[in-house]
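Hi everyone, sorry if this is the wrong subforum. Our group has a chain we'd like a structural model of before ordering constructs, and none of us has done structure prediction before. Sequence below.
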Amino acid sequence: MVAQLMAAASAPPVSWASPHRGSAAVMVLCDDDSLGCVGELGARHDLDRGVVVCLPRPDVTRSAFGEDLLVALGKTPGGLAAEGVSRRGWDLAALWVRAERVRELVVLRAHRLSAGQWADLGAVTAGAGTWLWLVAPGAGAAPAHAAALATSAAGRPIVHRPWRAALAVLPAPKRGSTQVAAGGHGFPVVPDVEFPLFRSAAWRLLDPAEFTRVDTVYRDAYARAREHAPGLRRATAGQPSSTEHVDAVLQQLTIDATSTDEVFTRVRAAQAGLFAEGLFVDLRPRPSPTWGMSTIRLQPRLDHATVTRLRGICDPTVAAAVTLSRATGMTSGRLQALRCGELLETDSGLDVRAGELTYRIPAGATWAETATVLAADLMAGNEDPRAHAGGLLGRALAALPAAARAGRIRLRADAGYFAGSLARAALLAGVEFAIGAKRIA
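Answer:
Right subforum, don't worry. Here is the predicted structure as tokens:
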């Protein structure tokens, strides 16, 4: 499911000076192990722009190195242990490198890693189309490390450069931005009036620049609300007091908001737009508030702080379930009934279709790489997935399009699915497979 909530194009040969390069390569940067190198390259870390800088602990195991990389990917320190997935550290790190669409992975003081860990990094970044930057002192890679890297680089060029050369390629650090109004998140404070008076009150009380910004958001939500009116009228025919369809429409219209004032602006615009189509939406407070917008829940669902907290979850299944619950307000029962085919990728993010209801999750919150999911199980975070693995494979194979079934089918599973039953199921189905195993020596 997380792949629903998260190719390098062909290009000319590698151009060192261009920030928009072609196929990924491996750069070994030589430095003097100085604080200046660590500080300047560390400042280029910007997960939103696909640049991840990792400073691993020395002499750590493969799983512990995976935890260091997960922290660099925005996961909560100690999250693996807290979520009960400590044994899957490296496998989850490899998954999230792809899901976060990391373009540049910089590993500082890479000489403290083993040759095997260099090989792991080479394999993961080759599969994800990510540029790998390994920073090591002196002349760069030791012979054993260079050999391991060459084996896993999948034919990618391996280039040695002084570390300062990377500063011309990696995106410069963002400059601090100034909020333009007191409303927070740059959105102006808007008047607290009913929808018939909202736009005129905003025009009267806000300065021209603030009103222009508010009115742009208002007019967009107003027009979209009118487009929803026919479907909403059909859905509520004979049930004028039904709220779930109204809540779903308001969710679609307000999910992009990043502040309370912006949510309020979109709600008032939605009321006005629906009223223009002959539908009156009563948003008076009720005794027992729920997630529904029809109970005046004006806090943004996916503001920056919330998305950051969601991004901190290590387990991809938990991350997907919590994101869906937060964004849509669906109960656990509805989430369990949800099928992968009901999550549809669009140009603006995802549409979640739960029965007659449709919710929207914007692209800014669906940070993971999109893919076609054939089958999935939603389980508790401490439940062993191996017992269900064979059945999951069977359902996935049954859902394959006919054209795909005629070709060569391969299965790749991480160490969390290391079980003989899955291997036997793959063997009987004629599927080539590779299943990760916990390293014990």
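For your construct planning: The two ends are 33 Å apart (CA to CA). Residues 1-22, 176-184, 285-296, 366-371 have pLDDT under 50 and may be disordered.
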